[in-house]
Design brief:
5-stranded mixed β-sheet, 5-stranded parallel β-sheet, homodimer, alpha/beta
Chain lengths: 250, 250
Amino acid sequence: MSGWLVIAGLGPGAQAQVTPEVQAALAEATDVVGYIPYVARVAERPGLTLHASDNRVELDRAAHALEMAADGRRVVVVSSGDPGVFAMASAVFEALEAGPAAWRTLDIRVLPGITAMLAAAARIGAPLGHDFCAINLSDNLKPWNLIEKRLRLAAEADFAMAFYNPRSKARPEGFGKALALLQDVCGDARPMIFARAVTTPEETMRVVPLPEAQPDMADMRTVVLLGNSTTRIIEGATGPMVYTPRSVQA
Amino acid sequence: MSGWLVIAGLGPGAQAQVTPEVQAALAEATDVVGYIPYVARVAERPGLTLHASDNRVELDRAAHALEMAADGRRVVVVSSGDPGVFAMASAVFEALEAGPAAWRTLDIRVLPGITAMLAAAARIGAPLGHDFCAINLSDNLKPWNLIEKRLRLAAEADFAMAFYNPRSKARPEGFGKALALLQDVCGDARPMIFARAVTTPEETMRVVPLPEAQPDMADMRTVVLLGNSTTRIIEGATGPMVYTPRSVQA
């Protein structure tokens, strides 16, 4: 048996947003590896072994997946959203680079998924319809002052912004600092969108003017979007629609 | 019959990356509206009218779609990639805001798709695995000096970058200026990725050090990715793998 490793994105939650190629890889796999809640989204079946592991062990999980693929197994590493956006793909390549040379001959494919910011944007309109950036607000793997520098420069560039991992129990303070900085440097009432558990039965969407945004509006299941200086709100029959125009005047 | 409007992303090209919810919307539609090559990706069937239009008529196309939905038709506006990323979703909301108040009561949904930068990133590794930005290099709808400002600030923020619409016959000069600016401000040999026609039979992927990047490596079917200052290349058996590490040292 010839082994392979697929690093697949499951999308934000709904089965209707899992691509056919990811479904096909899961159907052919002998082993699925990932963080507990993501592995829980994969249906059990005979011949498939599920390997669920806790958060913050990404490199161990990646090495385990590579070892199994080298042993001839058909391994899918699952991430929520897209595996290349603050998820497992970089961890697998880090482990690959640090590991035995033989791993570099493995059949490795990355299969994209619908990332949380784009699923959230779709649910509220088109807030990322102009130039934008994506910033991970966790300071587990980078210094906080780099996050602040990026927020300032992103505001100066007038990017719309998407924030992943805004707040966790282990990091209760960061998001409040980020909000205070953005409220100060943006200096306007552009809309901020708190999209929690997007596309799942627990989904909530909340749009607030930036000055009214509060840290406790976000948790680790929330992706936060922020418009740019031109972002507009249309009041529809069933709630607000938020979009960023394609044009900027000269 | 109760009409609706769906703004759907077809992904970058391969049918295996079209989500089930987009497939379902197309199966229920009476009308599909979009740019000629994207409408050509939708299979004809009895009861479905295809409305293909040329480029640069996005607002007319959007208004036409809204009118048909208001008339009780089930309309899908199709974009390549994700409709919220430099595509039709913003145009539809612009037309909605400028149109009759009755349009605001329409049933409108945006269905995300795999956007080109994430499909391209997946094909080469994980170059967008850390904070990143997405910039449309067309100056049809914004002044060129704003593009240059954003490139400078994005480099200062050490974002990985994705560039949409890098070059067209109508805009042959811009991408060369953007490359020269990036070569100057980045000042290193970080990898640039030219991903053309990703996931289609015509796909080509090319990785070059930034100083060796040339304007004619891109056309309008190309999405261009640029690593940040820490992006790494692993030489694999079948070609290079490019990834941006998750961590930055304090």
